[in-house]
Amino acid sequence: MIVGIDLGTTNSLVAWLSPEGPQLIPNALGEFLTPSAVGIDNDGKLLVGRAAKELQVVAPDRCATVFKRLMGTDRKVTIADREFRAEELSSMVLRSLKEDAAEFLKQPIEEAVITVPAYFSELQRQATIHAGELAGFRVRRIINEPTAAAIAYGLHELKQERVALVFDLGGGTFDVSILDQFESTLEIRSSAGEIFLGGEDFTRSLANQILISRQMNFEHAELRHPLMLSRLLHECEMAKRKLSTSDTANVRFPTIEGEINEACEQVSVSAGQLNEWTSSLIAKTRLPLQRALADAGLTRHQIDEIIIVGGATRMPQIQTLLREMFGKEPRATLDPDLVVAMGAAIQGGLVHLNKAVTDMVVTDVAPFTLGVEIARDIAGSVKGGYFFPVISRNTTIPVSRVEQFSTIDANQTSVTVRLYQGEGRRTEDNLFLGEFELKGIPRGPAGQQVDIRFTYDLNGILEVEAVASASGTKATHVVTRHAKNMSDRQLREALQNLQSLKTDPRENQANRHLLKKADRLYRELPLELKKHLERLIHGFEEALQLQDASVIELNKKALEEFLNQFDEQH
Ligand code: ADP
Ligand code: MG
């Protein structure tokens, strides 16, 4: 069984291709969106999703979020005094989705198609595959999120050629892609983006302004009052969402200890203010938009269709910007939160050659230029460190290309092939991907021919082969792991590390989430209500202890109803 997964910076989703079309799969709380959040509770239990987000408000040092931004790096995240790589944290989210799917579809799930931002590098794509493997998936394909969105919109079903622009503003990444649809083919013409721009930045911006108005400083608060800041960010997140549909919203300003009580000041924020405070963030989307157009060789008038994806595109400012820039209404008939997962599910079906979608050919592009290091003869002296592009940015993949090179020295019997990605003329400006040696070049004068073939597959995995033409000697290198990626040994260790983490049985997850939420709200309430809540929590805990289903249900309902009147927002 294969599923499609949108592994987001903020939220992740899983879907499958049912006979009736793509279908989203709910998690243990009955929701489609699982926050990409991981936490370790006081009793050492691993929490994923909403429960981890609740815990983060009161114990930020026990939780991790936005780790997708660290994919493909060696950076470690510490939660509850344990260190994790981004791949490991992502794998916990993936595993949770895998279990949700197995429960929903009543069968084990072995395979997945996972989406990544179009702008993800080689390293980040490979890290995503590793995360999938750590979660126990066979990752059949990595596809770009905008491609998935276009598939969900069924652009391939259109009769006439259309050019679409996919604008995806999620929690932490911004992606813009231009796709061309013709004769049942969906081709990405260009993609650009910003890996440090998303809805979270809007929330932080709002919090920052509120802090400034109180003569406080964001960095200082982060350092000295992390609880206050995490609570304030939670408040700002709710206010920001409200402002997408209302003119004003209130932010309760927490105490320095991070508590919210009846004495807390309420800060009223208007949609206009939010607009003003975040105008520089909105402006930041323009450059990637222009670059994507330029790379595709198109003007904005040649875009037939604008598709918006990602929760942050619900902000009216975004839609206004697009309307002004392109002179047309963005298309958003599908829920921008779900569209990527739906496309991934369809792609999963495509991988399995499901009949419903066999008529569709999907192509993708290389997000960066790939090449090798060469030495150049500059006025008689040989200088190294030059980048020779073999596959240029935005080439449609899969692609395979050969270039001829020649040896520099007489009797040179080996060459070191050093691989880079990037747009710089010098290798020092680009990202080193790996190197390998071709040995066994027959002795002879300088200028022996060496063919280097780059093959870039649909998963964005690069294979490079070097052949000494005279002898036919070959050396091959697959760019899967290098400095910043996990070795086999690290993967095995990570797997053991993960297995040592205990999780609640699935049926307990909703209960644990409820308790975490109650725990957070407890601190926000005035004394009278605190006492009431304490009784409800106690009753629920006791019922859980007794393991009597009907008593649990009764107490759970009472607690839920109480919490909902204070905190409608997730
Ligand atoms: P990702 O793909 O990065 O996981 P999502 O597409 O799930 O992200 O978008 C998450 C972002 O969308 C968050 O920053 C959230 O604050 C924002 N968001 C969700 N709903 C709204 C809304 N109604 N108004 C404004 N922003 C929203
Ligand atoms: Mg997304």
TL;DR?
This protein is of the alpha+beta class. Strands 1, 2, 3, 4, 10 and 11 form a six-stranded mixed sheet that branches. Helix 4 crosses helix 12 (339-351), helix 14 packs across helix 16 and helix 15 packs antiparallel against helix 16.
What would you note in describing this structure?
- It is a single chain.
- This protein is α+β, with helices and mostly antiparallel strands.
- It folds into four domains: 2-197 and 284-365, Nucleotidyltransferase, domain 5; 199-281, Alpha-Beta Complex (Actin, Chain A, domain 4), CATH 3.90.640; 366-503, Substrate Binding Domain Of DNAk, Chain A, domain 1 (Sandwich); 508-570, no CATH class.
- The chain is 36% helix and 29% strand.
- It contains 16 helices and 29 strands.
- Strands 1, 2, 3, 4, 10 and 11 form a six-stranded mixed sheet that branches. A five-stranded mixed sheet has the order 17-12-13-14-18. A four-stranded mixed sheet has the order 7-5-6-29, with helices on both faces.
- The longest helix has 20 residues, at 86-105.
- Magnesium ion binds next to loops.
